[in-house]
Specification:
The complex is a heterodimer. In chain A, helix 1 crosses helix 7, helix 2 packs antiparallel against helix 3 and helix 14 packs across helix 16. In chain A, 72% of the residues lie in helices and 1% in strands. The longest helix of chain A has 53 residues. By secondary structure, chain A is an all-alpha fold. Chain A folds into two domains: 307 residues, Formate dehydrogenase/DMSO reductase fold (Up-down Bundle); 143 residues, Cytochrome Bc1 Complex, Chain D, domain 2. Chain A has a two-stranded antiparallel sheet with strand order 1-2. Chain B has two domains: 328 residues, no CATH class; 69 residues. Chain B contains 14 helices and no strands. In chain B, helix 2 packs across helix 12 and helix 11 runs antiparallel to helix 12. The relative contact order of chain B is 0.11. Classes of the chains: A mainly alpha, B mainly alpha. At the A-B interface, helix 1, helix 2, helix 3, helix 4 and helix 6 of A face helix 1, helix 3, helix 4, helix 5 and helix 13 of B.
Chain lengths: 483, 416
Amino acid sequence: MDLISLYPTWYEPTVGSGWVVAFIATFHVLASHTSVGAALLFAYLSHKAYREDREDLLDFIKKYGLFLLVFTYVAGSITGPGIWYSTTVASPNGIGALIHSFVWKWATEWVFFVIEVVGVYMIVYLVGKVDKRTHMKISVIFGVASLATMLIIVGILSFMMVPGKEAWFQQGGYLNGFYGENTFIQLAMRMAFMFTMTAVVGGIVVAGIKDPAFKKEMARKLGWLGIISTIIGAAMFQLYLKAVPDQALLVMENRLPSYFEPSIIAVLAGTLAYFILTMLRPQVLVQAFAGGMAVVILVAGLWPEETARESMRKPWVAGQYVYSNQVIGRDVPGMGIKSQIPLLEKEGILKAHPFTPKDLRTVNDGNVVQAGKFIAMVYCSNCHSPSKTGIRPLHRYIPDNITEARMEKYVKGVLTTGNIAYMPKMPMLDSEVKALSTFLVMNRKGGEKAVDAAIRQEIEARQQAKLAEKAKNKIAALTQENN
Amino acid sequence: MDASQVSQITDMMYALRNPAGLPSYPIIFIGLSVLTFALHILFVQLMLGTSVITLIGAFSQNTYWRRLGAAMLEVAKVSVSVAIVIGVAPLLFVQVVYDPHWYTSNVLSADWVIGFIIFLILGYWAMYYYYFVNNANQDKSATPKARWSMLLSLALMLLVGFIMHSLTSQILHPELWKSWYMQKNGMVDYTGDKLHEWNLWRYAFFISLSIPVAGGMLVTYRRFKSVRSDADHAYLNWAAEVGKKWIKVGSIISTVLYVGWMMTLPETAGNFATSFWGILGGVMVLFYALWAQIRLNGEAKFCSYMALPMALVIGLVVAISREMLRYDILNGFFHYNFWDYKIEFDWYSTGLFFLTFAIVGGIVLSYFLTIAWKAGQTVGVYTPSAFVNRLGTLSIWIVVLWVVQFFVVGFYVWAR
């Protein structure tokens, strides 16, 4: 049996599985970047507290640390594996590719996670219970361990866009996959924005400081941290765009909404203005304002940045060899990986998919809509929802007066050949092209309701045919018996 | 199920394997998976057990229970964090070797997988809410506020435990995966809105181990706190007595549930219930009661500290039994053998992990836990000895060195 590594499809009709991953990932990035930045800030402040024998700085660490413990460590430590969970259900082969290449790197990161979790409790709860020197040492270890987690994950994230070195495709090897130009530039960019987030979220804690002089001191420290890191981060983002594949830039130019660039510039300018304001007039820094800014950074800054990075990878989802629809679209001789495209061209998607229901393995007049929907779910739904809402809904890309013949021509001429730069090649047998086209047209014209009604009719007809066949066989058997 | 049906299922599982292969021998991942699962489930049980004690304290009028409830809330809080962070490891390793099974099980119940994340965050926050509402009150014998939040936290933790139990159970039924992908009316089910398989005996068994594990915690608590100059020995001795009782009674309850689990195994498990590992799992749980009866008499200065390590050893044996059951079903019946997973060996990343685990993890955590331990036993400010201070300095150098090697190796590879 010639099968390929395709799993069942999870379809979330309201927002789409892709957005579910994006929500969790964006939230995690906010939490984790803030935590790492804060850990390094704590190391600096704790060192200063030890050198200058200052209780107020330790008190600030305790308050900020407790805040982080509840809002970023709890949520961050859960949404971290949460990204695994969400990608597992939305893109199992994408996450599988990363896990199988970088399992030891993740396991190494896990060692630092354990240090981080023990460390954050110690930093918060041992203020005043251990001497300042010991607290400083714990803070430094905690800070460096947190940084190590970021170093590791950025290499894996870079691989998602493009393996570190081109040689990885021919030679394989973890080092070739992990380290490259993209890795280091992305690392510098993330570290810069990490401090921006630390400064913004830290503002919530500074807002609660009662002593005006201390509040001013901390607002200035965080302000400078925020201004410098935002400027460096913006410069690194420009550099980062030079370290992505040409394909990614093409997608960025063609697929990202027109408001993307101006909105990013507006967010950066707004962030800088915010830091300048809080440095000049620390009294405006109240918790609601600081909390509001954290949300603005999340919604207006981080969300477009993360979703742009996601879009730019298309048509790939991992390592430039796993398509966004989970099919392996390229040979990777260095890892002994074979493209699944030739098999799909020979057998079709329905026969090659391990979870195709028995009644749908071959397209016929009695299952054409249901088979078409199955193909759309496998090939399209990761990026295009067949529902009215959701991620880039399919119906928006199809003219309302389209005919089935025209649709078939498009599917065969464009989709099966891979003629759209940012979409995977989707091999299909002619019968599958017909099925998908029938579904797409019906979905465009009548929506999901019409499709489901048609499928119910097909199922009913198949059941009746089976019953008739059974009855016929029974009669034949009885006739034979009587003779 | 006839041979050809089994063969089709075997082919499907092999087809789903990730073609990138593994960077090390599969047995290493299985070994680490079992070890880290045992650690993870210990902290899960500790969190559940101490949460129950917190609730008993919250609803009791007894001053000792009130104090104990407040003290155990601290343990529950930390245990959730530790359980989550340690749980990352078995979650990682299971999808390396059993990726066809784990991914299929997850996708077929995707809504619940996403729900797991949300429920866990809410459950954790509910626990913290209870903590913040009551922490400021120095009188730990007062009636706590917002008891509903602690109840809610426990309920959500039990729910996420059930989701995880179900996802793990679904792994064991590859023969049903295709049918779970279909609705009864013949439509394909893309929703992922159902949990398809569970065994209440198995779930109850793992949850019930929270009782003896919490008992072990209470015995350890007495021993740990008794060296402080401000220790209330009457209260601590009372707590230890409760702990001993919980170990003994809890272990017996767990053993009964284990037997129930073994009696309700699917047919595909064959004779696992009466096999060596099938029997040993239950015997070890019962052994915990026996050990407590014999070794936890009087002050039991050494053995009191051994109560939790004993629970870990017993948990490890149960984890091995659990793994053997999975192997027996998937290999014994369905002929899916994790041993023949393709290997693309990578010495560097394999070596780096084990060195980081042993050297960085070993030294830094030794330093951290020494400080935490000593500070917990000291009234006032703890100042470490010269040796512990040197251990701290060494820890700093080691993590810094790790970061340096990251960049040195990275720049070398980049420039190559």
